[in-house]
Amino acid sequence: MGVVSNIGLYEVAEQWVASIRTVLRFEEFPSVAQESYGMITKVMHEKGVLPSSPPFVCYHNADLQQLDVEMGFPIAKELPLEHAQVTCHMIPSRRVVSALFQGPYEESDVLLAQIFQWIAEHGYEPEGSIYNSYLNDEERPKEELLTNIGVVIR
Predict the structure, then answer these.
(1) Which residues pair with 150 in a beta bridge?
(2) Minimal CB count within 10 Å: which of 23, 86, 110, 123?
(3) Strand locations in the chain, DSSP E?
(4) CB 90 within 8 A of CB 14
(5) pTM
(6) SMART domains in the record, alphabetically (predicted)?
């Protein structure tokens, strides 16, 4: 359990996503995420669209009282939407320092700290966004949860 891959630098291709972006207090995150993923899944199902990879969360800042967070699913192509909360947009290509974590979500800060240390040691600067991709579902035991954590750099 813990960090299960080497930290590395990657060029991530641009990606269409169906997502919801909101500002919340960190303690609200679990309930808002559950509601948001349900809403996004429903809209995608109505449009006949499948995700192209596992769900993600992007933390656009680190203010736990006013957390700017985006939750969604990568999709293969643009999805015309007329929905009040679910949007479709392109995340531009980006350079990301990332690694894989196995274990409970609430214990993954150890990897995030290591990623920030790697960034500093290699002369890069964080851009501000942190992406978590959830590679399996919460029905598994917490010790088996896999999360890819990536910090966008300049």
Answers:
(1) 98, 131
(2) 123
(3) 2-3, 8-12, 15-24, 56-59, 67-75, 87-91, 94-102, 126-134, 146-153
(4) yes
(5) 0.93
(6) AraC_E_bind
